[in-house]
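A quick aside before the break. I want you to see a complete sequence-to-structure record at least once, exactly as it would be stored in a machine-readable document. Don't worry about memorizing anything.
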Amino acid sequence: MAGRASQRGEVFYRVRFADLDDHRAISEPLAGRLVLPPSVQQPRALRFVWSGDTVGQGWGINPDFGGLVLYDTMRRVQPDFFLHSGDTIYADGPLEERVTQHDGSIWRNIVTPAKAKVAETLDEYRGQYAYNLMDDHLRRFNAEVPMFAQWDDHETTNNWYPGEILEDARYTEKNVDVLSANARQAFLEYMPLRISLAAPERIHRKFGFGPGLEMFMLDMRSFRGPNSANRQSTSGPQSDFLGHDQLRWLKQALKASTATWKIIAADMPLGLMVRDGDNFENAANGDGPVLGREQDIAALLKFVRDEGIDNLVWLTADVHYTAAHHYSPERATFKDFTPFWEFVSGPIHAGTYGPGELDNTFGPRLEFVKAPPQGRANMSPSEGFQFFGQVDLDPESEALTVTLKDIQGDALYSKVLNPA
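That is the input. The structure line, written in C-alpha cells, reads:
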C-alpha cells in the first residue's frame, strides 16, 4: 500500500477557522490532505470506494459500537476518492436514545436536538449533517479521502418527488418543494461540491481521472415526475426520471468522453423494484415492456449502443444490501442495448434489508448477493451487514476490478472487467 500511495500526487493542508465578527477568535489548526487525480500525461493505478446510507433506520452514533465504523474500514484501503451514492443523512429519521436489537441487547444512540425530530427548517437540515460529523471515524475519513457526493431521498424525506404534498403527521411543513429547497441548501453547504455560477444548485456532474476513467454522477431525484404505478406508455413530465435536460447532458457527455471506462454513479439501481406503497420509486415497475420511468433508461441505453460507446459500469447503493447484476439483451424484454454490469453496495451505517426483486425489462441476472437472512429486516450495524465497494484500475492493462466488501474489509465478491 505504501508503494501505491507514493505514486500519487498529494496536497497537505492546514486550516484555521475565524469568527466573522471577531477575527481574534481563531480555532486550533486542522490538518488534512488531498490526493490529486491521475492525469492524461501521467496515468497511474487508481482506487476508489463507494457506498451509501449513513445513520438510517434509527441506528445513530453508538459509542459502545465504536461509531460509524465502516468509514474507518474504507479509509484503511487508502482510496483515491470516495463516491457517496446518496442518503448522506436521514433527515426524516429521528433517533431514540435506546433501541432494542433483535437479540434483545440495547443499542445506545447519541441524540442531539436536530436528530430528535424530522428536519423541516434549514437549520434543522444543517443539524443532520453536523450530527454525522460528531463521529471521529467520519472526520478522519474526510480529512484523508476526497468525497464525491450525490443525494437521494433521505436528504429531504423518504421517497420524495417535486410537487409532493406530505400526509405525514410528523411534519408541520407539508410542501415538499419547501423542504427540498432547505435540504438542497444544507447539502450544498456540507458536501464538497464545486458550485457552478451557471447552475449553482446543480447536483449532476462529471469528473475525469486520467485516460482510464471518467465518472458521471446522476441526480435521480430533482427532475422526476410523481411516484406512480409507473406504467405510462409515452415519455413526459409524469414519467420523467432523469428529466429531459439531464438525459441530454448525459448523452452528450458520454459521447464526448475519451476515457476507457465510463462509471455511471446512480443513486438508485436500475433493475431492482423499489416500491413506494402501491407506487414505484425508481425505474423498474415489474416484468414486461418499457413503460413509465424505464423510458429514460431505455433511451440512454439505446443511445450508448447506437453511438458505439463502450465500457459502461453502473454503481449504486439505496437498497441496503450488496449485489452484482449483469444486464444483457438476450435475457431482456427491451433488446436495443449493449450488455453491462451494475454493482450495488451499502449501507455505510443504517438498517439492512433485502434482497429485492428484479425486473426483466433490461435482462438483469443476479451474479452475487449478500443480504439479511429471510425474515430479517432492519438489522443493526452490529450484526455485520454493512457494505462498501472498491474499484481498482490497472493503468497498463486497463482492467477494472470491482470488489464488494463487508464492514471488516473482507472481500465477499470480486469481478475483473477487461475493456472492450
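Two observations worth writing down. The chain is about 15% helix and 20% strand. The first helix runs from residue 2 to 6. We'll return to this after the break.
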